[in-house]
TrEMBL record, chain A:
Name used for this protein in its record: Dihydroorotate dehydrogenase B (NAD(+)), electron transfer subunit
Family designation: Belongs to the PyrK family.
CDD domains the UniProt entry points to: DHOD_e_trans
Signal peptide start and end residues: none
Pfam families the UniProt entry points to: DHODB_Fe-S_bind, FAD_binding_6
Record note on cofactor: Binds 1 FAD per subunit. Binds 1 [2Fe-2S] cluster per subunit.
MF terms in GO: 2 iron, 2 sulfur cluster binding; flavin adenine dinucleotide binding; metal ion binding; oxidoreductase activity
Organism: Neorhizobium galegae bv. officinalis bv. officinalis str. HAMBI 1141
Domain FAD-binding FR-type: 22-124
InterPro entries per record: Cbr1-like_FAD-bd_dom, Cyt_c3_hydrogenase_gsu, Dihydroorotate_DH_ele_sf, Dihydroorotate_DH_Fe-S-bd, FAD-bd_FR_type, FNR_nucleotide-bd, PyrK_electron_transfer, Riboflavin_synthase-like_b-brl
Binding annotation for FAD: 75-78, 99-100
Keyword annotations from UniProtKB, A to Z: 2Fe-2S, Electron transport, FAD, Flavoprotein, Iron, Iron-sulfur, Metal-binding, Plasmid, Transport
UniProtKB/TrEMBL annotation, chain B:
Domain of life the protein comes from: Bacteria
Function comment: Catalyzes the conversion of dihydroorotate to orotate.
Pathway(s): Pyrimidine metabolism; UMP biosynthesis via de novo pathway
Keywords: Cytoplasm, Flavoprotein, FMN, Oxidoreductase, Plasmid, Pyrimidine biosynthesis
Cofactor field: FMN
GO cellular component: cytoplasm
Name of the protein this chain belongs to: Dihydroorotate dehydrogenase
Organism: Neorhizobium galegae bv. officinalis bv. officinalis str. HAMBI 1141
All copies of domain Dihydroorotate dehydrogenase catalytic, residue ranges: 4-283
Catalyzed chemical reaction(s): (S)-dihydroorotate + A = orotate + AH2
Amino acid sequence: MPASLCVVSDSAPTAAPVRHSVNEVDCRVKAHEWVNGQYRLLTLSAPCSVLDCQPGQFFHLLCPQTDRFHPYLRRPMSIYSCNREKGELTFLYKVAGEGTGALAGLETGDVLNIVGPLGQGFEIRPEWRRPLLIARGVGLATLAPLAQECARLRLPLTAICSARAPDLLMSTNLFRSFGAEVITVTDTEGNSDTESLTPLIEGLIRSRGIDAFFTCGSARLMRMLQEIGARHGIGGQVALEQHMACGIGMCQACVRPFRREDGAVNLRVCREGPVFDLQEVL
Amino acid sequence: MADLTTRIGALVLKNPIMPASGTFSEELAEVFDLDCLGAHVTKTITQGKRAGNPVPRVCEVNGAMLNSIGIPSKGAEWFLQNTVPFYADYDAPLVISISANSADEFARFAEEVSVPGVAAIEVNISCPNVEDHGKAFAMRPGPTGDVIRKMRSATDLPLWAKLSPNTGEVVEVAQAAEAAGADALVTANTMLAMAIDSATGRARLGNVMGGLSGPALKPITLRMTYQCARAVSIPVIGCGGISTVDDVLEYLIAGARAVQVGTATFISPTTMPRLIGELEQELEERGLTSVDALIGSVDIADEAITLAEYA
């Protein structure tokens, strides 16, 4: 089995995504804590064979069987952070259903089997110099490694973080630590709807010269960005979710329709995605 | 070292572990060396392009999965130009799974895909969601015999008939496939099933009904393997719910000459190489020198055989 080399890639970050080998490994839980009332942060000790990750890629987790939860299929989860020096992989997730319910029962020292890294991550094109990240809910976790990559590329960054309520806003300090200008919007404050966000974003385009959108976590926000992007000629990318079975590209379960030159085509979210061109999503 | 080789008609497989159609593709080469497998079995292809079914295409139930993928296919031309050459780099024989809407279409398609590099054709006459409200050729002996007979005259490649658990005539269908010229049987495909979300009242698959696979299916397909191995003289390949080496042993003991591993690869993509290693170890621990020593060795009292035949 070919193993990924555990070295920091020195290739240009704007190059086409590299296809990494996929590994199935057992990881020890290093820490597992509540971030707020709904979200948990899971830290794994991971071997270097799985730590050559791109922002936007995901792992397929074999959630444990518990007294209450009996997930059968694996659960895809985007990477919250990946640290080769520390041998650490973290996931930020919302405890919502059978799989995440089971996952939430893991304790420090327990073992979790993971497969990955999987999928195509974000691509920051050379012409994109002033990105805007817009995420809602768990989408904030997916965009965190991208914010870090923007910081590494010294790209000035603006992030709009959306949540149902202020206490559910996550990662704002993390985004700030990457040098991002952070704007928070919430349902309870009444400024997270598209009617409020559209003028806010169009203002940022004028004032900050925003030239790329990156988003995750809300179909409503994605549609809004497609419209704004089409109007202003601004491209971007979106990380999508879909029910998966294999996570590797074999089963064809996780397809969605996309707009390509020769019309609508079904693409696999696990394989051709989970990151797609914003305007291609139908 | 125990001899893991097994013979499926004219084909010699280096071990009895191969993937089940639909749960295997080129992408798995990123996880392990595909040459460790006894054979490669492709996802079912159709002659023309097919989009497949609406999502959700899969859902999980206790200890099993339901799927209604709908055989999305890029068509024969794409397959012959891209998929067949990919597998040419491997020694493991390539078995391609095909489906069609009629016996004549099956025959024409079999001829088209009988190209160098293809070692055998698996005939998917059992996919439950192809047409006609889930009815399939493999539900009855007549249509099964028709398909195999027409294909037999269209190609010289070995034909593996993949049977369906969605029939009350398992033995009759198996014998019809054998009589029509099948070289092996695969027992079996998924079982037609359904799941509903009790909270919303919604069917959990976009296509409403779909095929059940995974450990929950095993007792049914193991029984079919046993029935077919007793009723025909061509090799039977067991398939259904295999995830452990004990599952492999059970199928071999029931009479299978090889097995296919499907859904377990979704749960653990390294299942097949692990099973090959564990099977070898198991044979050695039992003091057996070959897989052959296990095949069809099920210990059944005479009285029980009589009862089984009346079941």
